[in-house]
């Protein structure tokens, strides 16, 4: 088990983390908005409409849980965002090497869905 | 209090009622679909998206409750649909006169929201 609960974050690292976190969030949200606009544009009956509603309910719940900016879980959050393609490892440049190694290892190992 | 719980519906009345009910439902659903498509087309940020989600949640709940085809409540359902403009009294032609009078009276009297 990778020990990350007690990890310290320097001010520089906090800046890098915040920027990367926000960037991933903006990317995912913009993609979601495009997807919803596309789905909505072809709705022809009530079943489609409720499918869109179910889809939004699920994505809202998922986003609320996923974007958790607590330093105690941030390593896992970044691993997931890397794994899902919302973040590139280059965007975490400036974090301590041991954090980057953990994030990359977790991103490869874990199934986040 | 208008007594309608024990109202009897003839076969002719049932046919009229079913057709009018379905017609109102189709009208309301089509209007809702247009509204959602319009709202979705101008979404620019996540708050708008969650507003659309909240709107859909509310409308789904409302429609589920409103379109209740039980003969014991149909007088009230038609009164509400008339009140909200989804149905015109002419479309209930064929129902017994006492039912039409009750429906029209309720449509004028009640606040359904």
From TrEMBL, chains A, B:
Gene3D superfamilies: 6.10.140.1840
Domain of life, per lineage: Bacteria
Pfam families recorded: FRP
Name of the protein this chain belongs to: Fluorescence recovery protein
GO cellular component: thylakoid membrane
